[in-house]
Amino acid sequence: MDTRFPSEKAYPFDSESSVGMKTEKIFSMQTLDQIFIIAKKIILGVTGHFLPDWACLLTSILISISAIAVLGPFTMMYLTLLERKVIGRMQNRIGPNRVGKWGLLQPFADGIKMLTKEDIVPLEADKVIHFLAPLFIVMPALLVFAVIPFGRNMTAVDLNVGLLFFIAVSSTTTIAIFMASWSSRNKFSLLGGMRSAAQMISYEIPMVLSVVPVIMMAGSLSTNSIVEAQSRWHGLKWFVFTPWGFLGFIIFFLCAVAECNRSPFDLPEGESEIVAGFHTEYSGMKFALFYMAEFMNSFTLSGLAVTLFLGGWQGPFLPSWIWFFLKTYALIFVMIWFRGTLPRVRVDQLMGLAWKFLLPLTLANLLVTGFWYFTSRPVRIAGSMVLLALAFWILTKLNRDVVPEKRVYHFAE
Amino acid sequence: MGISLIAGVATVTLPNIFHATLSLVAALLGIAGIYLILHAEFLAVIQVLLYVGAVVTLIIFAIMLTEGISNKTIAQRNKLGPAAVGGAVVFLAALWGVIRSTPWPIQGGTSENSYATLASLAGSLLGDYIFPFEVISVILIAVLIGAIVIAKKDSV
Amino acid sequence: MMPVPLQHFLFFAAALFVIGVYGALVRRNIIGILLSIELIVNAVNVNLVAFSRSTSLAPETGQIFALFIIAMAAAAVAVGLAIVLALFRIRKTIFTDQIDLLKG
Fold first, then answer.
1. Overall domain count for chain B
2. Which residue in chain B is spatially nearest to C68 when comparing CA positions?
3. A182 vs B60: CB contact, 8 Å cut-off?
4. Where are the domains of chain C?
5. Residue C30 to chain B, least CA–CA distance (Å)
6. What is the pLDDT of residue A6?
């Protein structure tokens, strides 16, 4: 395992963006940029005086972990508020505004309410698995925070397979959903679980494939190096500004919305169809854990989209972590916007979109990227053109409008 | 390692097939941990991605499609139990003896160059082993089509 | 950190393999047998990776073999489960001792 810590890495001095600035200003910018790293260093420096080396290491790990463990739930709490506010505005309402100024204390009120609710376990339920499912759904959601680069030098663990780690860990969520749906002994739960598994498996494939062009361009799987690869043009050479990057970003974002079961792909928990899907039988804090996992997933997936396609923490003028959070919240806003705008899709539309549209599109995208980066100029132009024509033909063939057969109502007429 | 073994035993003995599958997940995660000890990070991640993410999900899907939600009453084991335990113990003892008596090379991967990096892995996968790699992809496509044909409703 | 000696991994893999064999022998449920086969395959993989770490071969060799085996195992499971589904649709059972169509 890679056991380096962010604080041990040298600050890569960005000479390009600081040309023409006064030294003092650079210094303050730098301090602001690295404020969390410096804070951690100070804590480590204080504890280092009276603790042995291994304890220092442990403290360093603990600080990183606790930062993430605080950030995760906190993000989730305020995402609920943000979502309710934004949706409210879109529906011409005001949204929560009673608890605290602008409803800022609403999440705490909700949390207390959740904690005081009765914890109901169905009589026929598989007790152990019913209990474990909410834990297993929160664990991967928290684990993936480890490889997200929140800012310069602010990746908790810089794995050399970071991107794959993210995808692998988040794919285990399916198991937890299965556990929840199966142990509840409820047909709505089971239906929700089946739908969710089908959806998550289908959308995982285009999601992983849409990331591959980025890996080709960056030449690395580490999230840190992917961000570093986008650092030119004053930190504005984002992968989304290349044609394949742009297509990959759109596909990735759609798949991310489907992966965290958000509207318009919220079939696993569509209220009007199957009560609440796989968490129908959960109440109180366990229910809150499911919600927490869902919101943290949408946060981390937006964060990953920012890291891969939108330059991560790169950006002019502002400190790096502010850039990261700005971009991430912009993407989350788009997700909420989706929810406020789009109706829920049907199951066949959902599967058709993944297998007949997104998957061929990602494959074509992948091949064009390969041609462009690894062959000579005439070959790559010709190859890309042929591929694009072929992809266009296949996509139009696959996605013809299905004309349904005339329905015969045997008993109604 | 211990976790993996316990979970493995649970996988083969638990009467409820869903519980068995979940303990298989635990065993597989333990094995991913062992790959980490062996400095095979890529393999560990692939293990989680493919086994836990895909294979186990498929198995659970099949369980849900083939069985009722609860059938704890049906016996899950056949009458081979004692014989199988005996055979397994004998076999384990034999393997144990072989492992104990063989003089393994002790050099161990302590030097830096014995770690397979991601780049070297990719290099040999698309270099020396390009032929098996292509064969695998052909097989996977064959499996994809075959599985759909077999499981299709009106094929029989 | 002290490297774990090779024998430990071999013992572990042998035990896991034997557990898998036991499961494959005694399970009545076809899906249960598939689970046991997964255990066996994983035991082999652990062996391969452990060997490739401690012999003079290139360290990638064992890992690539393990990768191929994982791919093949996934393929086997896919086909196996398809067969199970087809069987269940025809015979309404997935217990091996009830599938005796060829028995005279």
1. 2
2. B136
3. yes
4. 6-98
5. 10
6. 44
CB pairs under 8 A between A and B: 65
Partner residue facing B136 (CB), from C19, C31, C71: C71
The 10 Å CB-count burial string (b at 16+, else e) for C87-97 is bbeeeebbbee
Which of C16, C17, C52 minimises the CB distance to B4?
C16
According to the model, what pLDDT value does residue A338 have? 87
Question: Is residue B87 in some structural domain?
Answer: no
Chain B residues with CB-CB distance to C101 below 8 A: none
Which residues does chain A have within 8 Å of residue B61's beta carbon, measured at their own beta carbons? 194, 197
Containing structural domain, residue B47: 1-70
* Domain annotation covers residue B105: no
More confident residue, A231 or C21: C21
Of B27, B66, B121, the CB nearest to C84: B66
Q: What is the DSSP string of A99-145?
A: SSGGGTTHHHHHHHHHHHS-----TTS-HHHHHHHHHHHHHHHHHGG
Across the range A47-69, mean pLDDT stands at: 76
Question: Same structural domain for residues B58 and B122?
Answer: no
Please give the residue of chain A at the shortest CA–CA distance from B24.
Answer: A175
Q: Going from the first residue of chain B to its last (156 residues), give the mean pLDDT of each consecutive group of 10, the final group possibly shorter.
A: 74 77 87 84 86 84 69 60 79 82 61 64 82 89 86 63
- Contact between A107 and A78 under an 8 Å Cβ cutoff? The reply is yes
Tokens of A14: 């960005």
Closest-approach residue (CA) in chain C for B62: C81
Residue partners of A225: CB distance under 8 A and separation at least 6 = A218, A219
Report A:95-154 residues touching B (Cβ under 8 A).
Answer: 124, 126, 129
Q: Which residue of chain B has the CA closest to C81?
A: B62
Longest dimension (CA), chain B: 58
pLDDT value for A116: 85
**Other CB atoms within 10 Å distance of the CB of residue C39:** 28
Give chain A positions within 8 Å (CB) of B54.
171, 201
Question: Is B80 within the bounds of a domain?
Answer: no
The partner residue sitting opposite B76, judged by closest CB among C7, C32, C39, is: C32
What's the burial of A144, exposed, middle or buried (CB within 10 Å: 0-12/13-18/19+)?
buried
**For position B33, which CATH number holds?**
1.20.120.1200
Q: Which CATH architecture has domain C6-98?
A: Orthogonal Bundle (1.10)
> In the numeric block, which tokens belong to residue B57?
């999900």
For residue range A60-87, what is the model confidence (pLDDT) as tens digits? 778 778 877 788 778 888 888 888 888 8
What is the reported pTM?
0.81
A351 touches chain B (CB under 8 A): no
Q: Cβ separation of A159 and B41 shorter than 8 Å?
A: yes
DSSP string computed for chain B: -HHHHHHHHHHHH-SSHHHHHHHHHHHHHHHHHHHHHTT-HHHHHHIIIIIIIIIHHHHHHHHHHHS-S---SS--B-TTHHHHHHHHHHHHHHHHHHHHHS-----GGGSGGGS--HHHHHHHHTTTTHHHHHHHHHHHHHHHHHHHHHH-GGG-
Is the pLDDT assigned to residue A102 strictly greater than 70?
yes
C94, pLDDT greater than 70: no
B65 found inside a domain: yes
What is residue C2's predicted lDDT score, i.e. its pLDDT? 54
Distance (Å, whole) CA A264 – CA B81:
51
CB contact (8 A) between residue B63 and residue C32: no
Residues of chain B that touch chain A, judged by Cβ-Cβ distance less than 8 Å: 18-19, 22, 25, 36, 41-42, 45-46, 48-49, 52-54, 56-57, 60-61, 64, 69-70, 117-118
Cα distance from A29 to chain B (closest Cα, Å)? 36
Round the CA-based radius of gyration of chain B to a whole number and report it: 20
